[in-house]
Structure formats: structure tokens, C-alpha cells
Write a structure and sequence with these properties.
Largest sheet: 22 strands, antiparallel, barrel
Radius of gyration: 31 Å
Low-confidence stretches: 1-43
CATH topology of the largest domain: Maltoporin, Chain A
Distance between the termini: 20 Å
CATH class of the largest domain: Mainly Beta
Strand content: over 45%
Number of strands: 43
Helix content: under 10%
Mean pLDDT: 90
Number of helices: 9
Length: 977
């Protein structure tokens, strides 16, 4: 028999077409399904949309739904990491593998430059301001993604970048049910790090760099060779070959016969690990004719692959709905989550970045102090002593040993997330209802960063501690009146309402140093005050909204909606924004001329158009700007006296950014719903873009907010759901979704703007690389070359090359945005066995790998690890290469250029699951209704070209020493009482 959820239920419902997108899992049972069981129920499937629900096949907007079985059983900490490859039109990027990190999601392209492009998250009908980590995937019933104007216009300014509606589980009528899930997993890197040279190769390469560096000082080749041999060990600060080989590399650049390293300490082995992942979830639910309840408890302990990193969460939820009177329904939904994230620095170029530390230090620098014969130097306690490498060159992270210091330090983020929702729904007439609701999200964050006074760089200042506390409180009140009436073949649904949103943010932070005693972590234990800061921000939004839907004979559908928002971010004259949508659909399969074909089970054409706004302006550092129109000041101390400087000028003319969205789609089902699909075209135009306009530093400010330019996103989305095989014991489903995207800047003042390594120009995308073009290596001397473009006296363009990076010409080098994204999912069930898999992929786009350049130096960063690619460096015997010759004199060849621009195309086996459900009669006597055991893998395989770089990078296509994605293998069991 067909099951909605292979993992948690055996109740009969229709399979894959019950949801717009996803894999269907099937659990075999003894009874035989009816032949027409896939037909009518799938066509009438109800989906969650803005401020209510709608029938999927008659809805005029673009909505995709992911069912609970695609989310509940994924070994992910954050629900955003479960969306990649599941929905056409969504670009999901996990920019960090740090447990507890949130993925970046873009729906139908990039809608802004300086304003937020994040979608709005709505939980159980109310916009959500809490941390998404606070929502346990096991509590989720479904996720709806609203992509077009009809679907999102009712949320006005808050829905400009699409909406993700999360519906949590509710109790069902009938006997109380207890679900229990426990899993144990193991995690490691999803992709291997860059390949590096070994100790022997490094010493010979660095000898060559020294020799070439000496030769550049007009020293003869023989003298340079001897100097390189004499100074090699002293320059690197260590001799891993022992006292028997005081000069391990001869004047010919080769290791002396018999020389062999006495140790090989790969720092990745000590700073990275195979980590554990433990999760336990329990929920109890039930209901009667007039009420239902759902209660859950959850625990997660997700260790990171980097030492001292991880995420621990305790969560609970209580949801009750009740019909207290025939005319009154009430409900309450309360959730609380406490989380602790251990997060050592792992996402920037800071020398304390643990990912850098594992990569930068070559294996001939030991992590425990060594004697000349290679044995460990032991401390008074008989244990090895950590080697901090005071002798190491600066490039090799001198005086640092993260393996020693991180266990003594703190990099802790604690959060308490409370979310409460309540509603009352009054039924005045069968067709007339009024619903009032209130929602509050309270997030209390405490950051604790402690550097110990015993070991490492913190010891130089007696240790330090920083504590940060942030409190975010937001609430939303909503009052909605709905009217729903049928008049023969006519059906009218109308909605009108009012909403008010308030946001209050407060933060405070302080730093102290100089601890008199170790192992005391609080600021009171430190004697010297370093800094103290704090600020607060407030935001409010007043809204009025309405919608009318009409259909005739369940065949022709029309809808129109409008919303007016007043945002406190703008001056009074520009405060109100007005947003709208119109849409229609035609259920062609209900027409007699189509029915007579006896081909289509469903055929629906839909179209919509409308506009939404965006007020979420960000500062250049990525922080929100809550007072876009006001003059702001920076307060400083000048010799102990208070001072004030201008931070932002008054900009009363700043107004709403507007998104205009066109959507045209065709949905079909044939062969008794064994093949279903959806094709959509979208055109999204963002105008009056909110942008931080740079200005001359002489003005005393760096930029000011303004409305400039227009961006356009266009593309096609294709989804196909098939059931190639289906019989009493076996079912196989295969689903595919594809999305194309063409992002284009269509209007800009002045024609173009340079922002970092990107160029904003009319006709280009928002993420076009504008960097020098690599021209290879000069085969005559091994120097790096970059392309130059100049204009001669006749006005003709002249191309050339230069070995001086500062003279290279910046040129457009392609976009970071992929041309095609998608996913392929499959599920197979055979009797009590089940299997499912998901492959995600991106085709096109480029990635600037600035991580890789850190180990591609030409020898000027002595002691820093080297990529194995350096074995192909230029020499007189190897003139035709794209790796310059080595030297201790810098040649800037690792500076930003197209040399380090790589293809972003990749495919990843995102999830694989195999399970077995024991026959029910095994447990009837003890009242157990279901018992399933399973094994699953996340990020199992990755197929890509540029080895070492995780291809799943930030949307702008630039790496930043980030925490790599993790491969997780999980074993578990599920039981239902």
C-alpha cells in the first residue's frame, strides 16, 4: 500500500503528486491499492499559501511544496541545508560546513545589490524572526516556496525576494501516537583538501627559491647554490633530517643520499577529525473531533570536523488547536530552543582560522617538540610538549599551535530562542470568518570568546576575554477577515486584513585582558578594560492587505491582491509602499475538447504579474541599516575627550526598491498521473535599487544610500515527476527539476561601478568578475604575465602583456552565477525495504579561489605549505608551464587574476538513504505499530574539476578560507507506538 511517509507512517495517501516537488517513498503493505488511487486526490491536493491554503491545481500563483519525509530524515542541523536540489527556482548555497551554519537561499535570482535578497520565512502563518536553527526538522510537516507575485504580494515588502512557508506538525484525530527517532552519525570532510608537496619536495623546491633569489642579487650561480645549501635549514628554522644531515640539500639542489625525514606531522590530522553526530527526537500527538495536540522534545549534538567545533541543541514544541465553541476556534503554538555552538574562527583570513592553520603549516614542522633524533621531548608529566614554532617563519604561523590552545580557549555562542503564537478564529456565518493572531519571537544571544593566558599568542597579553549579549524581540499582530461563498458554478473568496510588526534589537559588548590566574573565563577575572560598546535599533511596519479570488465551474480562475506597507526605515514622504498582483489560471483539462482526447489527467495554464517592495537596506559590512533616511553620527574619543564625526548624511529621498514579477506556467499530468510536470517562465525586474553609493573619502563618509539602477532576472523552471514502475510489491519514482537563470543589470547611473573584484555594468550580471587576465608564464625567464589592453594614437585597441601586476588591465572574466541548477531524486520500495537518493548539481558560473593562492606562493612566503602544483614550476628545462619560476623575491603572481578563476560546475550526491521496516506482527503484543532501521549519507560524493576547493561556495563566487562541507554517515531507528 502506498505511504505518504516511508519513515514515519503507514497511513494510506497518494504518492508523489500529492506534493508539487519531491521524492515519494513507498512502504509495502499487504493490501492492494485501487487502480485509480493516484487520480482525484492528487489533483485536489491542498497546499499552504499566503494567509491560508489553496488547491494546488487551481492556484493562480507559483508554489512548490516539500513534504516532511524529505526533511525529517535528513542529517542536517538547519532546515535550509535540506532545500538544495528539491525545488526548481531556488539557488541554495552552504557557504560553511560549521555545524549550525545557515545556508544562503535565493529564489529566482539576485533581486538587489545593497539590500537583502533573503526570502521571508513564515512559520505557521506568521513571519518568523528567530534563528532557523531553533526549528527542528523533525517538527516540520511541510515547506511551501512561494515564488511569484500572486503567491507573495500579500506579504508586500517582506515578500519581495520570495517566501518560504514552514508548517509545523499538528495532532491528528484518533488514538494518541508516539514517535521516537534516534540516530548516531559520523562526519568528516566532504572533499579532500588541496594536495601538498611532501617534506623532500619542499626542501628541494625551497632550495631552488633561495638560489634564484640570491642570483637576482648579481651573485654567480655557483655562489647562489652554495648559499642556498648553507642557509636552507636556518631560513626554514628546522632540520627534519637530523644532525646527520646538517645541510640536507646539496649544491645540485638534490637531497643528499640517505636523507630521510624523521617525522611527518600532517597538521590536518591533529586539527581535524572524524566527528560524531547524535540526535534524539520524540513527539506525542493526537486529537478528537474538536481538538488536537502535538508535543515534541529534541536533542542534537553535532560535532564539527575541526577540533573544538560543534553545535548542541535542546528543543521543545507544544501546539494545541481546539474548537471551544461552534463559532470559535483557538490555538497556541509555543516553542523553545536552547543551543550552544562551539565556533573557532573558520571563515576569514585571520591567522587564528583553524582551517588555515591545518592547511598553512607544512608537515616538517612538528606539533610536538622533537629531539634531534626525531623523538618527542617530554615534559615533567611525561607527556609530549606542544611545539609553538617560535622558530618558524611568520608565514608558517609563528608561535601558534591551535591543537594546544583551542582546548584552553572559548569560542562559544549560546542562544535562547522562544517563539509563541496564538490565534482566535470567529465564525460569524459559514462563509464569513474573522481570525486574530499574535506572534512573538525572542532571541537572546551570548557570545563568549576567551584566549587563555598560558599558551600561544594570548599569553603575550595575559589572556583576554570578550563577551557579547544581544537581545532581539519582535512581534506581529494580524487581523484577517475572510469570505468564502459558492453560487452555483461561481465561487468567490475574499480576504481583508491589517497587520502590525515591531522589531527591537539591543546589543552590548566588552573586552578585558590580563588574567592573574588561568582557568577563569569571566571578565571579572581580568584586570585591564579594553573596550566597551553597545547600541540598539528599532523598526516598525504597518500594513493593510486584501485579496479577491474568483472561479467559474472549477475551470476559470482569477485573483487580485493588494497591500500597503509603511516602513519606519524611510522618511515620512516616502514611507508608504503599495504592492499588488493579478493572476489567472485555466484548467484546460476540464474542457470537453481536452477530455475527449483521453490523454491528460490534468492540464492547467496559469499566469500572474505584480509588484512587491524591498526596504531591507544593508551597510557595506552586511549589517542592516534601520535608519536609511536619517543623519547618523559616530562617537569617538580624542585624547580622552568626546568627539563626534559624521557617519551617514541625511537622505530623505530614499524610497522603496520595487520588484515587478511576471510568471507564466503550464502544469500537466498524463498516464493516470504516472507522469506529471510543470514548466514555468519568469521575469523579475528590480528597479529603484537600494544601493550604497561610494563617495570621495575627503567628504568624511564612505558612501550614502540611494535608489539607482535596475536588475532583471529571467529564466525557465522545469519539474518532472514520474513513476516508471508500480505494482503490489515494487514502486520506483524518479523526479527531476531544472532551473535556468539570466541575471542582467539593465540600468545604472554612469554606466558602471566597480565593487571589489566585480563590475556592475549595463548588460552584465551583479556578480561579473572584473580582474586582470592571466597570460601565462614567459618561457624565456619564468616571470608571470598578465594581459594589457591600451589604445594607440589612431584609437585602435592594442593588446600586450606585462610581468608587472600593477600594469595589468582589468577585464570582464565571466559571472559567478550558474547557468543551470537542479536536482535528480529517486526512490525505490520493495516490500519492506526502501531506498532514496538525491543528486544536486550546478552548471556554469565561476569561482575565484583565493584560498588556493595562499599555498601557491613563489617562495616569498617561506615556511608556508606549498601546493603540489608547484612541482610544475618554470625551470630552464620546463619552460612551457603556467607556474612561474621560484624565488624568495615576490612576483605578485598569486594576486587576483583569471589564473585562479575556476569552473563552478559540480554535482553532489546530496543524500542517500536505505531502510527496512520490520513486519507489524513482530510487535503487536507490545503495542508497537512500526519499527524501522536505516542508514543514510549526506554529501556522500562530489564530482568537480578543481580538486581541493569545495565547489559549494558563496553566491558571489569568491572563497574565503571557510569551513568545508561535511560528509555525514548516519545509522538510526524509528519507532511508533
Amino acid at each position: 500500500m502506498i505511504s505518504k511517509n516511508l519513515f514515519t507512517s503507514k497511513a494510506w495517501i497518494p504518492p508523489v503528486a500529492a506534493f508539487f516537488l519531491g521524492v515519494t517513498s513507498v512502504s509495502a503493505q499487504n493490501s492492494k491499492p485501487k487502480k485509480d488511487s493516484l487520480h482525484e486526490k492528487e489533483i485536489d491536493e491542498v497546499v499552504v499559501v499566503a494567509y491560508g491554503k489553496a488547491k494546488r491545481n487551481s492556484y493562480t500563483g507559483s508554489v512548490a511544496t516539500i513534504s516532511s519525509d524529505k526533511i525529517n530524515n535528513r542529517p542536517v542541523t538547519n532546515i535550509t541545508k535540506a532545500l538544495e536540489g528539491q525545488v526548481a527556482g531556488i539557488q541554495t548555497t552552504s557557504a560553511s560546513g560549521q555545524p549550525g551554519a545557515v545556508s544562503t537561499i535565493r529564489i529566482r535570482g539576485i533581486g538587489s545589490i545593497s539590500a537583502s535578497s533573503d526570502p521571508l520565512y513564515v512559520v505557521d502563518g506568521i513571519p518568523f524572526d528567530g534563528n532557523l536553527n531553533s526549528i527542528s526538522p523533525s517538527d516540520i510537516e511541510s515547506i511551501s516556496v512561494l515564488k511569484d507575485a500572486t503567491a507573495s504580494a500579500l506579504y508586500g515588502s517582506r515578500g519581495a525576494n520570495g517566501i518560504i512557508i514552514i508548517t509545523t506538525k499538528s495532532g491528528k484525530k484518533g488514538e494518541a501516537k508516539v514517535n521516537f527517532n534516534i540516530s548516531q552519525g559520523f562526519s568528516g570532510r566532504a572533499v579532500k583538501d588541496y594536495e601538498q608537496v611532501n617534506t623532500d619536495q619542499y626542501f628541494q623546491l625551497y632550495w631552488e627559491a633561495l638560489r634564484n633569489g640570491y642570483q637576482s642579487g648579481k651573485v654567480s650561480s655557483q655562489q647562489a647554490a652554495q648559499m642556498a645549501t648553507d642557509n636552507l635549514v636556518s631560513t626554514l628554522g628546522i632540520n627534519p633530517y637530523g644532525t646527520a644531515y646538517p645541510k640536507p640539500v646539496g649544491t645540485d639542489g638534490k637531497l643528499l643520499p640517505g636523507a630521510s625525514p624523521l617525522w611527518n606531522d600532517d597538521w590536518r590530522d591533529i586539527l581535524q577529525r572524524v566527528a560524531s553526530r547524535n540526535q534524539v527526537d520524540l513527539d506525542i500527538s493526537g486529537g478528537s473531533e474538536k481538538s488536537n495536540y502535538f508535543f515534541s522534545l529534541g536533542y542534537l549534538d553535532d560535532k564539527g570536523m575541526a577540533i573544538e567545533s560543534g553545535y548542541k541543541r535542546y528543543n521543545t514544541r507544544l501546539k494545541i488547536n481546539s474548537e471551544v465553541k461552534k463559532w470559535l476556534n483557538v490555538g497556541v503554538n509555543l516553542s523553545y530552543t536552547n543551543s550552544i555552538q562551539q565556533a573557532p574562527t573558520s571563515s576569514d583570513s585571520n591567522s587564528s582560522n583553524i582551517i588555515n592553520a591545518a592547511r598553512f603549516i607544512p608537515s616538517f614542522y612538528p606539533y610536538y617538540e622533537r629531539n634531534d633524533d626525531g623523538t618527542y621531548i617530554l615534559g615533567a608529566d611525561g607527556n609530549p610538549i606542544y611545539d609553538f614554532g617560535k622558530y618558524r617563519p611568520t608565514s608558517a604561523l609563528q608561535n601558534q599551535n591551535a591543537a594546544a590552545t583551542l582546548p584552553l580557549d572559548k569560542n562559544e555562542n549560546k542562544e535562547d530562542n522562544f517563539s509563541g503564537k496564538g490565534f482566535m478564529e470567529f465564525t460569524f456565518l459559514p462563509e464569513l470568518k474573522f481570525k486574530t493572531s499574535f506572534s512573538v519571537d525572542l532571541v537572546n544571544y551570548n557570545g563568549h570568546y576567551y584566549s587563555n593566558p598560558l599558551l600561544g599568542q594570548g599569553a603575550e597579553i595575559g589572556g583576554s576575554v570578550t563577551k557579547t549579549n544581544t537581545r532581539t524581540l519582535s512581534y506581529t499582530t494580524s487581523n484577517i477577515l475572510t469570505y468564502d461563498k459558492k453560487f452555483g458554478k461561481h465561487h468567490v473568496n475574499a480576504l481583508a486584513g491589517h497587520e502590525f510588526y515591531k522589531y527591537d534589537y539591543q546589543t552590548i559588548s566588552g573586552t578585558r585582558s590580563q588574567f592573574s590566574l588561568p582557568y577563569y573565563y569571566e571578565p571579572d577575572a581580568a584586570s585591564l578594560l579594553g573596550s566597551f560598546s553597545g547600541n540598539s535599533n528599532k523598526l516598525s511596519l504597518l500594513s493593510f492587505l486584501g485579496k479577491v479570488e474568483y472561479d467559474y465551474n472549477n475551470t476559470y480562475f482569477l485573483s487580485a491582491s493588494g497591500r500597503a506597507d509603511s516602513s519606519s526605515r524611510f522618511a515620512k514622504d516616502n514611507r508608504w509602499g503599495r504592492f499588488w498582483s493579478v493572476g489567472g489560471s485555466w484548467k484546460i483539462s476540464n474542457e470537453e475538447f481536452v477530455k475527449s482526447l483521453n490523454v491528460f489527467n490534468q492540464l492547467t495554464l496559469r499566469a500572474s504579474y505584480g509588484g512587491q517592495g524591498n526596504d531591507k537596506l544593508l551597510r557595506p559590512n552586511g549589517q542592516p541599516l534601520y535608519y536609511a533616511y536619517q543623519e547618523l553620527y559616530r562617537f569617538i574619543s580624542l585624547g580622552g575627550e568626546p568627539g563626534t564625526t559624521l557617519e551617514k548624511t541625511s537622505t530623505n529621498n530614499v524610497k522603496w526598491e520595487t520588484n515587478l514579477n511576471l510568471n507564466v506556467g503550464l502544469e500537466f499530468a498524463i498516464l493516470n498521473n504516472r507522469v506529471k510536470g510543470n514548466i514555468e517562465y519568469f521575469k523579475r525586474k528590480s528597479q529603484d535599487l537600494l544601493f550604497n553609493m561610494p563617495v570621495a573619502p575627503s567628504l568624511g563618509i564612505s558612501d550614502y544610500p540611494a535608489n539607482i539602477g535596475t536588475i532583471q532576472n529571467t529564466g525557465f523552471e522545469f519539474s518532472l515527476f514520474t513513476t516508471p514502475i508500480k505494482n503490489d510489491n515494487f514502486q520506483w519514482n524518479v523526479d527531476v527539476n531544472l532551473s535556468t537563470l539570466n541575471n542582467k543589470v539593465t540600468k545604472l547611473p554612469g554606466g558602471s561601478l566597480v565593487v571589489g573584484s566585480k563590475l556592475l555594468t549595463v548588460g552584465g550580471s551583479v556578480y561579473d568578475f572584473f580582474i586582470p587576465e592571466w597570460a601565462g608564464v614567459d618561457p624565456s625567464n619564468g616571470k608571470p604575465l598578465w594581459k594589457t589592453v591600451s589604445t594607440d594614437a589612431s584609437g585602435n585597441s592594442v593588446e600586450g602583456t606585462t610581468s608587472e601586476y600593477s600594469k595589468a588591465t582589468k577585464l570582464l572574466q565571466g559571472s559567478a552565477l550558474p547557468k543551470l541548477t537542479g536536482g535528480i531524486s529517486t526512490s525505490i520500495s520493495y516490500k519492506n525495504f526502501d531506498f532514496s537518493g538525491l543528486l544536486t548539481f550546478k552548471i556554469g558560473g565561476k569561482i575565484l579561489d583565493t584560498d588556493y593562492t595562499s599555498i601557491m606562493h613563489n617562495g616569498s612566503a617561506g615556511g608556508r605549505a606549498w601546493s603540489a602544483e608547484m612541482l610544475n614550476r618554470w625551470t630552464p628545462d620546463n619552460p612551457n608551464t603556467d607556474v612561474p619560476g621560484l624565488s624568495t623575491t615576490t612576483n605578485n603572481w598569486t594576486s587576483t587574476s583569471s589564473r585562479f578563476l575556476y569552473s563552478g560546475t559540480y554535482a553532489r550526491l546530496k543524500n542517500v538513504s536505505l531502510g527496512y521496516t520490520l513486519p507489524e506482527d513482530y510487535f503487536e503484543k507490545i503495542g508497537l505499530k512500526k519499527f524501522r532501521i536505516y542508514i543514510q549519507a549526506e554529501n556522500l560524493l562530489t564530482f568537480y574539476k578543481h580538486k581541493g576547493m569545495d565547489p559549494e561556495q558563496a553566491l558571489d563566487g569568491t572563497t574565503y578560507y571557510r569551513y568545508p562541507a561535511m560528509r555525514t554517515i548516519t545509522f538510526g531507528l524509528q519507532a511508533t507506538l
